[in-house]
Specification:
Elements: H1 9-16, H2 18-21, H3 28-34, E1 37-40, E2 45-47, E3 53-56, H4 61-65, H5 75-84, E4 88-93, E5 96-100, E6 107-111, E7 116-121, H6 125-139, E8 144-148, H7 176-181, E9 186-190, H8 193-203, H9 205-216, E10 248-250, E11 255-258, E12 261-267, E13 277-281, E14 286-288, H10 311-325, E15 331-333, E16 340-341, H11 343-368, H12 374-380, H13 385-388, H14 400-412, H15 427-438, H16 441-453, H17 457-470, H18 475-491, H19 495-510, H20 523-527, H21 532-542, E17 553-559, E18 564-571, E19 574-579, E20 588-592, H22 594-601, H23 605-610, E21 612-615, H24 618-624
Helix pairs in contact: 1-18, 8-21, 9-19, 10-11, 11-14, 12-14, 15-17, 16-17, 16-18, 17-18, 18-19, 21-22
Length: 639
């Protein structure tokens, strides 16, 4: 594999300018990152049952061994990554403890009268298991009275099976009072959690997984020429994931008492996730802010792909939390990074964070109404100087540039009103026309090399990208595009931007690397939480409607163990699903268990053979016949 190239002198000069722009002498965030340390985990390596590494803090030891950021890393990102490498067990206050640096997200343990509740359970089983073991080393056996998912992203629920077994969960059919009295673990989440957890991680999971390789740099090794942190942690783990569906959903700003501990919930829909919630613990005067205040500028649009988030709602709910709980709060803590203590500091932390999202929202809208496009706004708008110098809203994860485009997308969509852009050619066709019009490709490359030497890396990447899409075998264009992307990566303050640039450079030099990526493995443990309707939705989404347009069918599904009845009809290739309905005129009726339906969704022969089918048995195979095989290896940086 080809070695990365060093930072150019231009990149070195650009990175050095950051020391004048930001107050590096202000180390209050470092103090917060280290406060309450009970046991450090600098050499932490977590392995799975096959003895393969799924998480390593040890790989980031180079951060502590260096006196300053190297030329190939933005100094601001270097500093943030260093703080995120402070892993271990921390006391938030007497009764609240966090295991940080064991995954992308934290696990927070809060003491109840006779046990513990755990707020967010990391992304992977192996990591959560290790976090639980660390807690038990200091506090003895952990009796988990409740698990709380703050929102619907996998790094907050995927590690659940490392904390409790599936049979430990309370019965969701019981009222909450009976669940609490049962001795089982109650699993709480904001209303709508399961819908959005499935839609993101299953329906669009293949595409997001491939794109996440670029966002999280899973193809890169940590190091001064490779992966750094991502602002909300060190990166993405590659262990196994699972999901236990909530046994109780929080539907309003209600107050619950769980094993003697009072919790006041605040729902924050449309913020960092479609469904999300804050929680206030009066006993500890502690406010949980989920992922809405996170010690970094967050994403209004995430690079892996997801629904655009509402910047105005985000700011509103932070201020509402400050209004509801701020005067009674001594510490705020969240699912990433570290807490903040002290009334004045907390108020400033919450208001500055809210102000950043409000600014992005309002000023993007203001400039939209002057007729500016998303690219024009993102290339010109800058944060007010006072907000720009706040460390905990720096652009380590989200960036001002792509967040502005998210606001534009939310209000105006993809179209910029220029009719030339109504129906443009595909990228490959466009690139071929560019190459045709430019003429002598060697002459274009020579000009691009001169621009590279002048430090115009973005333009060089843009023009050479066109040459690559016109002719992917043009090795000189690939190499020059890779060189430009590499320097852009070295200059990036955002961890995901650095990862994307460097991964693009890697694949230009080495070809598509997706096949060697180790991604989190969801498998059956995630899909078991899907409802029967979601499983049929999955079949529908994966089916090629044009191929099936002449094969109409109708089917009833009776899922006995779930008490679900569904009617499915396909007409003109489009599958329609009716919940709580069966049709006596359907071509067939399938009676099955949820496990059998899952097997059907996965096209497993043993599941097909075990179904009880009345009527036209061929309908089942015809339902599945048009499901497209999808692999997570599509190209990104080339056609």
């Amino acid at each position: 594999m080809k070695q990365p190239k060093p930072a150019t002198e231009i990149t070195a000069r650009m990175n050095a300018l950051w020391y004048d722009e930001l107050p590096f002498e202000d180390e209050r965030e470092k103090d917060c990152a280290l406060r309450g340390l009970i046991e450090a985990a600098d050499d932490l390596v977590i392995r799975n049952d096959e003895e393969k590494d799924v998480w390593s803090v040890k790989d980031y030891a180079f951060l502590k061994e260096a006196d300053a950021a190297p030329k190939s890393v933005n100094p601001s990102l270097w500093r943030n990554t260093l703080y995120n490498s402070y892993a271990g067990l921390f006391e938030v206050c007497d009764g609240i403890y966090q295991v940080r640096g064991y995954d992308m997200a934290n696990a927070t343990f809060i003491r109840t009268d006779s046990g513990w509740l755990v707020f967010d359970v990391m992304m992977c089983t192996e990591n959560m298991k290790a976090a639980k073991a660390l807690m038990e080393k200091h506090f003895g056996p952990i009796s988990v009275r409740a698990v709380l998912y703050s929102h619907s992203h996998i790094d907050h629920y995927g590690g659940i099976l490392g904390l409790i077994d599936r049979e430990d969960a309370a019965d969701a059919a019981l009222p909450l009072s009976e669940q609490l009295a049962s001795g089982k673990t109650v699993v709480l989440a904001p209303a709508g959690f399961l819908k959005y957890a499935v839609s993101e991680n299953v329906y669009a999971g293949i595409a997001m997984g491939r794109r996440a390789q670029y966002q999280y740099g899973t193809l890169l090794m940590p190091g001064r020429y490779g992966r750094m942190g991502i602002g909300i942690g060190l990166g993405q783990t590659v262990g196994s994931t699972g999901l236990i569906a909530p046994t109780y959903e929080i539907r309003s700003n209600e107050t619950l008492i769980i094993d003697g501990l009072e919790i006041r919930f605040q729902l924050t829909p449309g913020t960092e996730a479609p469904v999300e919630m804050h929680a206030y613990f009066p006993k500890y005067r502690g406010l949980w802010l989920a992922e809405n205040c996170t010690g970094t500028m967050h994403n209004l649009y995430t690079l892996r792909g997801a629904q655009v988030r509402d910047a105005a709602a985000w700011a509103h709910y932070i201020l509402e939390a400050e209004q509801l709980f701020g005067k009674e709060t001594d510490v705020v803590f969240q699912s990433h990074n570290w807490p903040h203590w002290g009334r004045e500091s907390i108020q400033e932390y919450m208001e500055n964070t809210a102000a950043v999202y409000q600014f992005i929202h309002d000023q993007t809208l203001r400039l939209i109404n002057f007729g500016y496009t998303a690219a024009e706004i993102s290339n010109s708008l800058r944060l007010p100087e006072r907000l720009n110098r706040v460390w905990y809203t720096r652009q380590y994860y989200g960036t001002l540039s792509h967040n502005i485009k998210a606001v534009y997308q939310k209000y105006m969509g993809w179209y910029d009103a220029n009719p030339v852009n109504l129906n443009p050619l595909s990228p490959e066709e466009t690139a071929k026309k560019w190459a045709e019009y430019l003429g002598d490709v060697d002459a274009v490359l020579e000009k691009a090399r001169r621009d590279y030497e002048a430090g115009e890396y973005q333009w060089v990447a843009q023009i050479t990208k066109e040459l690559v899409f016109a002719d992917p075998t043009n090795q000189a264009a690939r190499e020059l595009c890779a060189d430009a992307l590499e320097q852009l990566g070295y200059q990036a303050e955002s961890g995901p931007w650095r990862n994307a640039y460097l991964t693009g450079a890697l694949e230009l030099r080495e070809g598509n690397q997706a096949a060697r990526a180790r991604n989190p493995v969801g498998g059956i443990d995630n899909r078991l939480a899907m409802t029967a309707e979601m499983m049929l939705d999955f079949i529908r989404i994966r089916s090629d409607s044009l191929a099936a347009q002449d094969d109409d069918l109708s089917m009833n599904f009776i899922v006995e163990d779930e008490g679900e009845r569904l009617f499915l009809k396909r007409r003109a290739g489009v599958t329609l699903i009716y919940k709580d309905l069966t049709d006596p005129d359907a071509a067939c009726t399938v009676t099955c268990s949820k496990q059998q339906l899952l097997g059907l969704m996965l096209r497993r022969q043993e599941a097909l053979a075990s179904l009880k089918i009345e009527g036209d048995a061929t309908a089942v195979m015809r339902l599945l016949r048009y499901m497209s095989p999808i692999t997570q290896t599509f190209n990104i940086i080339e056609p």
